[in-house]
Design a protein that fits this description.
Helices cover 53% and strands 10% of the residues. By secondary structure, it is of the alpha/beta class. It folds into two domains: 222 residues, Rossmann fold, CATH 3.40.50; 59 residues, Histone, subunit A, CATH 1.10.20.
Length: 304
């Protein structure tokens, strides 16, 4: 019998993927592994939409609450932690199922990291100095040299901007083109959980209201007592708007909530665009297909 495939479920924020996976937990021989770059942080619960404690008690999730908000954590570490967790789960004769909306995490699971160009510490320091002297210059430069890579890198992700420019300056080749040379890891099967965009946007608006009711403002206020707002973790959607609200940036609470909803909708749009890159992905329509049929399809994909 062939080794079971490892399913990777990708979907935009607020699409209902967590509830789907918890339902699958009771139907399939799986263990849930988070694929979310914000749920790795301890103390950040409401703004990251982590499952509730009572849900985690019944449906344990791996790869959440790994580091504190002021600790560094990158895709290299996630990949290594994920690979280690895969072996642990398989040793229990169960199937690890990854679920989340962090496209970069999905990408490194399936394709790994491109490591063909060695680090150049001198060049990296020079690029860091340029950015400190003229904020935004690295993204502007990368956008001219390699717009495809620039579009996939968050403006605040200094490490990846430097890496993309480092590869170009050392090889004369675009980082985005070199990344295509990676070979897929055939252990993984990618699955896209889709919904109509209007449905996702409506769910986002309702989720933001729920987060406010659950105490997002209070959670952020507590975090601000121990962590500075310039940390990568504190710049995440949900927290950065709330920090601005607490610092009096918005004219009213309604303006703050509207901004949070808008920024979250824009983030979901970027996630949807990211998912279109993968022609190999199996598609499941959450609006029209029932859970039992999805469970059957998923089981066939795992034990193909």
């Amino acid at each position: 019998m062939n080794e079971p495939k490892i399913p990777v479920l990708y979907a935009p924020t607020a699409s209902g993927k967590t509830a789907i996976v918890m339902s699958l937990y009771d139907k399939l021989n799986i263990e849930i592994c988070s694929m979310d770059s914000m749920q790795i942080y301890k103390k950040m619960n409401i703004g990251t939409a982590k499952p509730l404690p009572e849900e985690l008690a019944h449906y344990p999730h791996h790869l959440i609450d790994i580091v504190y908000p002021d600790e560094s954590y990158d895709v290299n570490q996630y990949r290594q932690d994920a690979l280690n967790k895969i072996e642990t789960v398989k040793a229990r004769n169960r199937v690890p199922l990854f679920v989340g909306g962090t496209g970069l995490y999905m990408d490194i699971l399936r394709y790994g990291l491109f490591e063909g160009v060695t680090r150049d510490e001198k060049l990296r320091r020079e690029l860091e100095v340029k950015e400190s002297e003229t904020p935004g210059i690295l993204m502007d430069t990368l956008s001219r040299i390699d717009p495809v890579a620039a579009a996939k890198i968050h403006p605040n992700d200094l490490k990846r901007k430097i890496r993309a420019l480092e590869v170009y300056y050392k090889t004369g080749r675009k980082f985005s083109e070199m990344g295509r040379e990676r070979l897929p890891d055939e252990r993984f099967v990618l699955i896209y959980l889709s919904r109509e965009r209007s449905v996702i946007y409506d769910r986002i608006n309702r989720r933001v209201d729920q987060m406010i009711e659950m105490g997002l403002i209070e959670e952020t206020s507590e975090l601000m007592k121990g962590y500075t707002s310039d940390l990568q973790s504190m710049k995440a959607i949900g927290y950065r708007e709330t920090i601005d609200y607490l610092n009096g940036v918005y004219d009213s609470k309604a303006d703050y909530i509207d901004s949070l909803k808008k920024n979250t909708r824009h983030y979901a749009k970027r996630q949807i665009i990211w998912g279109r890159r993968y022609e190999e992905m199996e598609r499941f329509d959450l609006d029209s297909e029932d859970l039992d049929s999805f469970c059957e399809r998923l089981n066939r994909l795992i034990y193909i």
